[in-house]
Amino acid sequence: MDKQPVIFRDLGVIGYQSAWDYQEKLLQENLAVKSEARISRSALLPKELPTQHYFLFCEHPPVYTLGKSGSMDNVLMSEDQLAARGIEFFRTNRGGDITFHGLQQIVGYPIFDLEKFYTDIGRYLRNMEEAIILTIAEYGIHGERSKGETGVWVDPGTPGKERKIAAIGVRCSRWITMHGFALNVNTDLDYFNNIIPCGIQNKLVTSIEKEIGTRVDYEEVKLKLKKNFEKVFDIFLQEGN
Fold first, then answer.
1. What are phi and psi of 175, to 5 degrees?
2. In which region does residue 64 sit, left (phi positive, over 0), alpha (psi from -120 to 50) or beta (all else)?
């Protein structure tokens, strides 16, 4: 089977709302293609429809985002305190609980039509984790999964030492995905002290920088992530405007 083309766009530093709006635009364009096919009773199979895959990278200015099943009890600051520190807050339509996005953290948003891959959200999440695990392994970090908890962890089986290096939360509509993952590279981890990350008590958050003891080349990590997403998802990324 030929590798599927995916348009890659690096949005740079962008506000959370702007990135969310852009994802919604791309998702709705793909949903419109599927709706038109249904209305016209197209003979095309779902995997043959002209939907378009996208893969977006960005950094967000400091922001806390709460998933649709998340609890405000996991936010340890008041609205006034958030405003005083210049930190934004959003309730979102992704899965998962509370997390933080900030500079030197790679946020990835795949807008994939899973009907062209497989209709299995669990497999999609595991593949995202796998691409991140392969990436941090190139820095000597052994990433793992933690049973019942989405994301990528270091030492998940050692009580008191479990630490999360990448968070994942997605939304899927008619098998079109949005939202995605956040990998801590040289991220300021102090921001995580103001929340209960992902709603999980007594577990730590880490970054590539913290694990290896030195700041890393942020652009290099992005290149490695792209390569590993291509490998795991059997796609090829095309630079898009």
1. 70, 15
2. beta
Burial 112-124, CB ≥16 within 10 A → b, else e: bbbbbbeeeeeeb
Please tell me which residue in 66, 114, 168, 198 is annotated as part of the active site.
198
CA 159 centroid distance within chain: 26
Please give the C-alpha separations between residue 201 and each of 197, 198, 205, in angstroms, as whole numbers. Answer: 8, 9, 11
Residue 59: helix, strand or coil by DSSP?
Answer: strand
Instruction: Return d(Cα 113, Cα 33) in angstroms, integer.
Output: 11
pLDDT confidence bin for 81, thresholds 50/70/90: confident
Tell me how far apart the alpha carbons of residues 184 and 164 are, in angstroms, rounded to a whole number: 9
pTM of the model: 0.93
* Cα–chain center distance at 216: 20
As a whole number, mean pLDDT of residues 159-178 equals: 94
Q: Where are the domains of the chain?
A: 4-239
- The reply to whether 172 belongs to the active site is no
Class of domain 4-239: alpha beta
CB count in 10 Å sphere of residue 146: 17
Strand ranges (E), 63-208: 63-66, 88-91, 98-101, 105-111, 144-146, 149-154, 163-173, 176-184, 204-205
